[in-house]
Specification:
Layout: H1 2-5, H2 13-36, H3 41-44, H4 46-60, H5 62-72, H6 83-94, H7 102-132
Helix pairs in contact: 2-4, 2-5, 2-6, 4-7, 6-7
Main location: membrane
GO molecular function: ethanolaminephosphotransferase activity
Family: Belongs to the CDP-alcohol phosphatidyltransferase class-I family.
């Protein structure tokens, strides 16, 4: 509908597909890890694995990227930076280099992506609060001197 009304800021097919690249790569990496893990990580560390997958996916999530990019009139990046450390972890796990350390590496990666996700959320909230000149949990205007 937005395309027909010509209200899109970026209306090419390429710009519409760019936000899908990172989630597709995330699903591919996760599938490779689950399928070829020598430790059988999904069966032995189910909660921790799904926590990592959920936090990583929510940070890469297409709708959040689209909202931020539409608000700031910028183009989303093709590859989300979370994919690079994840690819390294998946490669070392699948090739058997981690051995029994795979759950510990998963836990460390969980802490890393959770901290990065919380940091991203705090930064977005602060920037929006500054832009709208309000306090974070209030609609009162700030007094600027």
């Amino acid at each position: 509908m937005a395309y027909l009304k010509q209200t899109l800021k970026k209306d090419s097919f390429y710009d519409g597909c760019v936000p899908l690249v990172s989630p597709i790569l995330l699903f591919t990496l996760i599938s490779i890890w689950v399928t070829f893990s020598p430790y059988n990580i999904l069966a032995k560390e189910t909660r921790m694995f799904f926590w990592m997958f959920g936090v990583t996916f929510s940070n890469i999530l297409v709708s959040i990227l689209m909202i931020i990019c539409q608000m700031s009139n910028t183009r989303p990046k093709v590859f989300h930076w979370f994919l690079f450390p994840l690819a390294l972890v998946v490669y070392t796990a699948v090739t058997g280099q981690l051995g029994r350390m795979e759950p510990m590496v998963l836990a460390l990666f969980n802490m890393f992506v959770t901290a990065a996700h919380v940091h991203y959320g705090i930064c977005v909230v602060r920037q929006l609060s500054d832009y709208f000149n309000i306090y974070t949990f209030s609609l009162k205007k700030r007094i600027r001197e």
